[in-house]
Amino acid sequence: MFTKKERSEGFLFVLPWFIGFLLFQAAPIIQSLSLSFTEWDLMSKPLFVGFNNYVHLFSKDPLFWKSLKVTLIYALCSIPLCVITALIVALLLNQAIPGRSVLRAIYYLPAITSGVAVSMAWRLIYNPDFGLLNYLLLKFGIHGPAWLSDTKWALPSIIIMAIWASGATMILYLAGLQGIPRYLYEAAELDGANSFQKFTKVTLPMLTPTIFFNIVISLIGSLQIFTEAYVMTGGGPQYSTYFYSLYIYENAFRYFKMGYASALAWIIFIVILVLTILQVYLSKKWVYYEF
Amino acid sequence: MLSTNYHLNRKKAGKIIKAIVFIIAVIGAIISAIPFIWMVSTALKPLDEAMRYPPTIIPENPSWKNFKEAWSTYVPFNKFFLNTVIITVPSVLGNVFVSALAAFGFSHLTWRFREFFFMLLLSTMMLPYHVTMIPIYIIFRRLEWIDTFYPLIVPNLFGSAFYIFLLRQFLLGLPKELDDAARIDGASSFMIFWKIVLPLCKPALMTAAIMSFTANWNNFMGPLIYLNKMEKMTLSVGLSMFQGTYYAFYNLMMAAALITLLPLLILFFIGQRYFIEGIVLTGLKR
After folding, report:
1. Of A121, A195, B113, B270, which one's alpha carbon is 20 to 30 angstroms from that of B252?
2. Is A163 contained in some domain?
3. Looking at the partner chain, which of B55, B121, B272 has a beta carbon nearest the beta carbon of A130?
């Protein structure tokens, strides 16, 4: 079918990406690993210190544990909440309701605008003195907390923001819903299934691959959260929103501890790898693939 | 008689359910829009009104003054805006084009080790930027690219795994008969890519372009690491500096924030038909 030329030509199209992979991913991974065994402030020569960085962070660094804990709590709370919210919104917007495409656009808007500007807007909304949120809560008779300046509420505040921005995954669920073949519903109806049964026996199982993809992607994303905390809280109050990325950033670019920051980076890399492999393994039990 | 009644009731119930769904969806949409409405409202107010309690949702005397001041009076936002455009435009064009090339190689051409390279591509999506951030910084520092735009543009020119994946999914759905017909007429693979495949995957290209545009436009950590000089700053870092200095001027802050969002909003509303329907219809089909 193919000539020899065509056989090798395919790689040429992929080559630019592959060069980028070698330059900006493969080589840096190796260099990062070797840096993690050194002490280096960018000025002098890197000093080989063996496993010292790793020993130090596990045994003598409370901030390492604190930032890891904050980040994992954020991931474990925000991912399920975002998955459920996005799924419900997708189910609503999959119905034939008037103004559907306008509504879809509005729900997607937060995903487009993520970053500094929106974080600033939320800081204003969370303001305990004249913010919109506590004003609206008071109308329902609730005295709102101090949100971002309260050690208990600062992390939930950032989680609420993540739920608000879950429109990006909502679109992927909509795509998944569109991909479910009509005839499955028709068959279920012939068997006398009601709406609820159709949802649990057809819709949900057929959506599990999309849900799985979203969970894997959002886990990786949420362990890398940076901008929101940098802009809204700076990691405070009392380190209650001190995410792992902030700690790496400060070690590398504020204290210029390149070796220590690299060791920190490798720990989160391993955490991500383990959690992803675990998810792939667990997915065999709940994700439905049709072949 | 009984059965028509039953059908009528079912029809009525269906209408009520649809109305409830609509109302819930609208309430949710309002909640989604509140931060934006609040930004606009605050940006149009004078400072005393912006800090008043209870807050006014609709400004008493709306004025564009804050936008004018935020644009150039305190911080050179006009300069930041230009810098961000200079970084974003080549990044997006390069990123999408190279991603499309690779996607074509992964979908329409057959070659040895293709599956291996595709698995490699997918596995790079698991790589957190933390791991590569420091070595890449060291490379760019050696090249003396600190305080230039190169560190923010050049990595984009090699494509991105996620966009390659997205475009490949779309290209798999295009019929290969067109390729074969063109090949018989003597077209090279690149000609097929350029003349046949690219024009056919406009919605997917648009999707990748909008995603890449927002990612580059909103990029915060990159400029934070690589740019120090005021005249090199981008909007996102400029905005966060602005917040650090003028944190008490909420109305100005929101005006500045809206200026940074404006191009994203315009692009989104122009492209959203392509964009949302594009993902919905082609997105993640296997």
Report:
1. B270
2. yes
3. B55
- Number of separate domains in chain A: 1
Judged by CB atoms closer than 8 Å, whether chains meet at B276 and A21 is answered as: no
Between A21 and B13, whose confidence is greater?
A21
Closest residue in chain A to residue B226, using alpha carbons only:
A253
CA-CA-CA-CA dihedral for A57, A59, A63, A68, to nearest 10: 70
Is residue A5 within a helix (H) or strand (E), and if so which, with residue range?
helix A4-21
Q: Is A46 on the interface with B (CB under 8 A)?
A: no
Assigned token pair, B175: 């019929």
Q: Which residues lie across from A39 on neighbouring strands?
A: A47
Phi, psi of A47 (to 5 degrees): -105, 125
Tell me, what's the pLDDT at B284?
A: 45
Full residue range of the structural domain in which residue A65 is found: 61-286
B33 touches A at CB < 8 Å: yes
State residue B6's pLDDT score.
Answer: 63
> At A130, which CATH number?
1.10.3720.10
Interchain proximity A175–B240, CB inside 8 Å: no
Q: Say if A122 falls within a structural domain.
A: yes
How many CB atoms are located within 10 Å of the residue B21 CB?
Answer: 17
By the 8 A CB rule, do A233 and A14 touch? no
Domain-located, residue A48: no
Contacts of B29 in chain A (CB under 8 A): 103, 106-107
- What does the block give as tokens for B34? 């509140």
Task: Render pLDDT for B88-110 as a digit per residue (tens, 0 to 9).
Answer: 999 999 999 999 999 999 988 88
Residue in B136, B142, B140, B102 with CA at minimum distance from that of residue B122: B102
Tell me if A21 is assigned to some domain.
Answer: no
Of the candidates A67, A275, A98, A14, the one whose C-alpha atom is nearest the C-alpha of residue B101 is A14
Check CB contact of B234 with chain A, cutoff 8 Å.
no
| 8 Å CB contact of B112 and A7 | yes
Contact criterion met (CB < 8 Å) for A108 and B236 = no
Burial A156-180 (b: 16+ CB within 10 A, else e): bbbbbbbebbbbbbbbbbbbbbebe
Contacts of B4 (CB under 8 A, 6+ apart): none
Could you report the predicted ipTM of this complex, rounded to two decimals? 0.85
